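cron nightly-structures :: item 1 of 1
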Amino acid sequence: MLEVSGLRAGYGRIVGVDDVSLSVKAGELVALLGANGAGKSTILRALSGMITPWSGSVVLDGTKVTGMRSDALVRAGLVHVPEGRRVLPRLTVEENLRLGAFSRKDKHGIGATMEEVFERFGHLAKRRHQKAGTLSGGEQQMLVIGRALMAKPKLLLLDEPSLGLSPRLVQEVFDLIRGLAADGQTVLLVEQNVVQGLKVADRGYVLTTGRVTSTGTAAQLLADPSLVRSYLGGQEDPT
């Protein structure tokens, strides 16, 4: 579904990621892991058109999409949920969701997708006519993921979905992500919570200062002593 080769991108003269290559198969959930400043969010921004890659190649479902505009990428099937729960606070839950389908012309299909979203997100169904700005942090996170699903993405990019949430809500969000993956949604997940990220992922890539330094299945990475020391405080059994 996604093939990234030699990606190099940054901000001004500052290199954010350098020579990054990764892949995501259809139906896979792949985690991008690493500390703050490792380049995880930069990769998602370069993939989704928020910044223009300096070099490298991005291929989505067999089509080269390197450097395409964000709206064109959404139409091609790549949808990005950025960090920070960016709801439109004065619009209702339903209006926020409808905006996620801006690239679609099938009115009947849009309505059907909205009902699927409400079925998956029971909290939102009860608040469909409520202003988005009045929702809790967890509900807003569910709303922005639901809004992305309205575009019927081939590939969903999730950036730090657990950031700023209570432990209970973190678990709810990851249960939701696990459910999406179980239903066949292809996901590239950026997450600082290494254990939670690897619990839902099929595979992972570990980034350090803009480069991929380790890759493997979720089980392999959780069993890697260096990863345990770096991100889990030296615990031998991260579960």
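cron nightly-structures :: done
The chain has one domain: 2-231.
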